[in-house]
Amino acid sequence: MLTATYTLVALSVEQASVRMSLQSLQKLLHASFIDQAALTPGQIGYAVDAAKRLYESCHWRKIDMFLVPAIRGATDQANQLLRDLDELARTAAEAVGTAAARMGSAAVDSQASVTQFCSAIETFCAASLKRLEREEKDLFPVARAVISGEAWFSIANKMLAHDAYVQDCKHTRHMPAARPAPALGQGGAAPFPRETEAPEAPYEQSTAEHIDH
Question: What was the pLDDT predicted at 202?
């Protein structure tokens, strides 16, 4: 089971990176947005773009590309758990869609509208963080129990090949177009992809100084 351990450790590192980015967005929201009487278009665009990048990062994680398909192929006893994770993904997607609707439309120029906007971003972060938690506490143990040694070896090889592919694409600066995640806020969460297409780069943390006021 060394291959399983290696694979889950690698997935945990990916989870930790996404979690840190989500928590950074939450901190920025509370430090620079939530107490404002109004938000500028630059502030709105910054927060929405950050949330969208994180949504894409969540969609293109290796856990969705490689681990979940293996679990689906090994057992149907995890179906309810996978539905719960799908529901959290839908909640996150709809929240980003709600926040994005503020761009170029209704102004965020009152305390009530600021609260609504911040609530949407917070809902996205909370649902995404909850999904990470359920995956680590509930999905990883299921994976250990139902995935065979041969399947773990296959997952590890796919992950290594995927990493090599992404690094090669970065080196050549010629990233092919990836299949886009489902449209946000339209009632459908990102399905668990089975292809090894290039993911969006993880959201890089920025500080409040980069926001246009």
Answer: 41
